[in-house]
Fold each of these.
Amino acid sequence: MIDTRLTRELELAVPILGAPMGGRAGGRLAGEVTRAGGLGLLGAARYATPDWVAEEAAIAREIGGGPLGVGLMTWALDADDSLLDAVLAEDPSLVSLSFGDPAPYVERVHAAGALAISQVNTLDDLRVVERAGVDFVVAQGHEAGGHTGRIGTLPLLQEVLDATSLPVLAAGGIGTGRGLAAVIAAGAEGAMIGTALLASPETIGPEYARGKLIEAGSADTVYTSIFDRARDQPWPARWGGRALANEYTTMWHGQGADNETLSAAYDPEDPDLGVVYAGEVAGLVTSERPASEVVRVIATDAERLLRRPF
């Protein structure tokens, strides 16, 4: 067992969080990550409802039999924080408040008895979340799938570890035991993984997404805002999203098209014209495997690597 502050604080068997991927991480995925000894997070995206949170939390707890984690987008809470009330009503052990300043919400999370964590993409982000009083910080690198920043995981992780006394997790580009062992050896308390779980049958979202990911190589992604613009998702401009490249990105990424044009061309039911957010470890995902198996293999391989003689 890899013993870190994360495993001790949350009484986990392995230092792995399942990323709160909006539209992909529901109760089944979160529950299976927890059942394997980590902690799965529900992805409570901007369009999630209190009923969705309650239903998926119940599924996660039934499967995982352990703590519950939920991820929220801070910039969306700034417009309407009612979803945080719904999340806290489920008595989570951990709430992720990322992509914005979590200061208005951390006290409420703590008052509910939960830990507050935030993903950061720069040292300026780190200072913001430190002032807010979060318990853990996640250094999320440019390799990550979905919305992320522009600095690679390894440079960012080193910067953050040197710059804070907070316990640090790593995210972005971690898809095997080698990745987990690397960030633990660097000083991280664990990892948040997302893309490695996206071919698991427990994910929600379009049926074609798992197959597209399995087919993709690690060079087959693009960092872009066109999918947000096509779907009228008001993400702040500083965060693009890493997705699998397809015909849609070939046609429209970097072309300067307006939102109306992008929306007319977008089709979420078509694998060539819809979005599959995924990170640069796509090439390491070569088959459809249960999420619990993915987590156990990553943890077991990491422990073996960390114990090997040098």
Amino acid sequence: MHSPAGGQGLNLGLQDAFNLGWKLAAALKGNLALLDTYHAERHPVGAAVLANTRAQGVLMVPDEDVGALRTIVGELLKIPEANRYLAGMLSGLDIRYDLPGRHPVVGSRMPGLEPSVLHAGQAVVLELGAERRYGGVHHARGDLDVDAVLLRPDGHVGWVDDGFEPLEAALTRWT
């Protein structure tokens, strides 16, 4: 049960449905293994959202002691790093799944991604370097140190061209 303030429970439900939806579509095409990833990816997210909505509920209690805590939290929000941390947590943009790979962007949402890059629930290969080796969608970005990434249908990075594994293995896993 989530407090309605901020709509985090609603956002969580939408993300759960999207995560499960593309995996069910893949299962209908024969990739049943993707369904096994749902719980591992979404259960920790649900637990974290429940914890932070419960904490927000406590902060709303009209009590003098809680008022002192609200004042301290308000002061912490003036610190840019704390503000970014809480904004990421409250928006869900900080979600990073524990996926195979060694690059720090694997499992997270693609930084600076234009929503139009995602195509109707399909995985997308973005080629970030000058050389086009994978036949993917060219999308220039200068802040990642890789030439290509595979975006899962939910916008999370499922693979990067860092030598950990070939693209074909990631495509087999995520499509």
